[in-house]
Amino acid sequence: MQPLSNIERARSALEEGRRIPSGALSSLVASSWERCRDLGLDPGIEPRDVVVPFPLVQRLREEHSGLRRLALAEMQLLHAQIAGSNFLIAFADPDGVVLDTISDQHFADSRSGRSIIPGSAWGEAERGTNALGLAVRQREPVAIYGREHYFRSHGHLSCMAAPILDAGGQLVGLLDASCSHEARQQHTHALVRMAAAQIENGLIYQERSNLFIFAFHPRAEYLDTLSAGLIAVSRDGAVSSLNRPGQAMLAGLPAAAGCHFEDLFEGRFGAAMDGLLDGGVVRIRDRAGSAVFMVCRQIGARAPAADLPGRGRLPPGPAPAAAPPAAPGFVCLDPALRRTMEGLADATRMRMPVHICGETGTGKELMARHVHAVSGRRGEFVALNCGALPETLFVSEIFGHERGAFTNARQDGAPGLARLADGGTLFLDEVADIPAPAQTVLLRFLDSMEIRAVGGQKTRKVDVQIVSATNADLAALVRERRFRADLLFRLNAFTLALPPLRERQDFAAVVRHLMQAIAPEAAITDAAIERLRRGPWPGNIRELQATLQRAYLRGRMTFVDEDALDPGDAEDQEACDACAGHPLNRIRCREIRAAYTTAGSNIAVTARTLGLSRTTVYKHVR
Ligand SMILES: Nc1ncnc2c1ncn2[C@@H]1O[C@H](COP(=O)(O)OP(=O)(O)OP(=O)(O)O)[C@@H](O)[C@H]1O
What keywords does the record list, in alphabetical order (predicted)? Predict the structure, then answer.
């Protein structure tokens, strides 16, 4: 008979309620088992899935939004590095509650994959010994393989977690990679630790964007690596943060926030700054006598004139950043709107999928174009209206098809929108309407960024910024199981919530902008704007646009005042038969019919004023 392995001896002791034989397990795992046993957890049963409600997940995501942005970008990279090896990558809050996951489809569909979902809590008390729970407790990287998990039912799972600490040493989140085989995954564990370290450095750049950041290491060739120290200092040398490698290199010195650069390094801070800001690598000794190489990684913001040191040794700070490009005709002075857009440029730089939600007519498509402009991507902006596309058509629209791939396929095939958007942006409008099988296909595409044309053999990678939009409540659709939760979590990595027009504080600016586009020569009175402001605007900016167009048509003069306005007139109209049953189409249809009446039943004038084709107008008024 084969002798029992250490883990088998330990497990039978655990499951038979005996003392765990010493040396059979690492002390970390053994003491975790003891704690779980003391909590009365039965290792033989299936643990209960503890999942916090979705609104709380949303709140936690908002609370950790800056960190989450960095984490999602790293998760994408990590996933690309280990894609295909059936892993799930999770980002969790400091209590071990999972906030986001990115996974290989096969694992996501497995029993284990379904238990690691946003909202699932992985503390030791809930799920027994597991990497996330232990890393929360230990505040250091932990890997738990197969039967080292406390619960027998987790015995096929391996997970590796790394804590993310802020510069003050506080645990702010965790990264985890899990897979469903027991083999040791040293390489993956190292990648998870590196991703966590990268996020920690990202936090320093994010939170200290107005300070000077210097990298240092005893070997110059390591200055660009994750083992380099990072130190953030103000213009006068006050240290604000140090990353973990930096703290380790300066161990023994008073290296804490609030100390001065000169407490840590020899020589005058000013002299060091001069060399560093010249862009060179400076050799400098720390106060313990060890030499390090140092280089400037970020130039701090220009100090107010009164704060500038008189010695004139510092070159002027960088010029203020130029305003980012915007989509043409995009008004956005509303503070709530501007808040939701904070971090958009970073999100697009990291290629995070952007999701735009808002009522009908709030400007989702225009915002999508703005996202494309902000991303600075040279490729095309390609839009797909996902509403009412059956699965097969959806797939061939996105991935293209080879010649004669299916009945009605184009003779010469089609490249597909994802390929057309390579290097640019793919805008998925009405994303809530994607049929269920196509949701799975889309999810796979978002994970791999690989496309294969229908009827084709070859796959190719594309580099696409994904933007999606809907006016539906996707969270509610997820609850009703009409939309995949994992797809929602992939799409809404960065969410832009557009306020309804009635809540916009830049209402007047929107009115003036629309009026300028309708009739550049016409003015609009303040009283007219005030009257408009009182409307409920269920159709939002589009409805306002139509009201102004009608007012202008009605007045046909050089200004629009209160008398020309009749916001209610569209409501008096009946929608056409085709639109009557569709609440969203109804609003638009009634506006077209009202404009048609105002234009003296002239299709050409109505079409020109509304910027529609004559056929469209005709369809609604015949
Ligand atoms: N911020 C803005 N500044 C100026 N014009 C805007 C703005 N937002 C929207 N508009 C205008 O309002 C109209 C409706 O915008 P858009 O089509 O982008 O809305 P939407 O939310 O995508 O509509 P739907 O829900 O029907 O798809 C467009 O003519 C657009 O140019």
Answer: Activator, ATP-binding, DNA-binding, Nucleotide-binding, Transcription, Transcription regulation
Residue 329, helix vs strand vs coil: coil
Q: Say whether both 187 and 214 belong to one domain.
A: no
CA distance 365 to 429: 8
* Residue 470 near ligand 1, beta carbon < 6 Å: no
ipTM of predicted complex: 0.96
Alpha carbon distances (Å) from 293 to 39, 275, 288: 51, 12, 15
The amino acid sitting at 614 is R
User: Which atom of ligand 1 is least distant from the CA of 358?
Assistant: 21
Copy the structure tokens of residue 239.
């240290």
**DSSP-assigned letter for residue 565:** -
> What distance lies between CA 202 and its chain's CA centroid?
15
Question: Is 392 a domain residue?
Answer: yes
Q: Which of 365, 385, 511 to mutate to test the pocket of ligand 1 (most atoms within 8 A of CB)?
A: 365
Question: What radius of gyration do the chain's Cα atoms show?
Answer: 30
For residue 438, being part of any structural domain is answered with yes
**Pair 597, 517 in one domain:** yes
- Predicted TM-score (pTM) of this structure: 0.53
Q: Which domain holds residue 451?
A: 335-497
Minimum CA distance residue for ligand 1 atom 7 = 363
The rounded Cα 172 to chain-centroid distance in angstroms is 18
- Pair 181, 217 in one domain: no
Could you give the CA distance from residue 462 to residue 451 in angstroms, rounded to a whole number? 7
518 belongs to a structural domain: yes
Give residue 615 CA to ligand 1 midpoint distance, Å: 22
Comparing 488 with 356, which gets the higher pLDDT? 356
Total number of domains constituting the chain: 4
Residues 185 and 67 occupy one common structural domain: yes
Size of the chain, expressed as the number of residues it contains: 622
469, 365 contact by CB (below 8 A): yes
Say yes or no to pLDDT of 225 above 80.
yes
Whether 197 is in a domain gets the answer: yes
Report which residue type is found at 345: A
Name the nearest CA neighbour of 156 among 168, 148, 166.
Answer: 148
Instruction: State whether residue 53 is helix, strand or coil.
Output: coil
- 108-117 LR contacts (CB < 8 Å, sep 24+): 108/486, 110/180, 112/154, 112/156, 112/157, 112/178, 112/180, 113/88, 113/180, 115/49, 116/88, 116/90, 116/176, 116/178, 117/51, 117/485, 117/486
pLDDT bucket at 310, cuts 50 / 70 / 90: very low
Which of residues 177, 205, 233 is at a domain's end? 205
CA angle 442, 446, 450 (to 5 degrees): 95
Ligand 1 centroid to residue 361 C-alpha, Å: 5
Question: Which pLDDT tens digit goes with each residue over 236-279?
Answer: 899 999 999 999 999 999 888 789 999 999 988 888 888 888 77
Say if residue 192 is in the same domain as residue 221. Answer: no
**CA-to-CA distance for 505 and 509, rounded, in angstroms?**
9
Answer yes or no: are the C-beta atoms of 70 and 202 closer than 8 Å.
yes
CB atoms within 10 A of CB 86: 18
Tokens of 306: 């009164």
In tens, the pLDDT along 167-194 reads: 888 999 999 999 887 667 788 889 999 9
Maximum CA pair distance of the chain? Answer: 101
The Cα–Cα gap between 69 and 343 comes to 9
Buried b (16+ CB within 10 A) or exposed e, 598-617: bbeeebebbbebbebeeeeb
331 ligand 1 Cβ < 6 A: yes
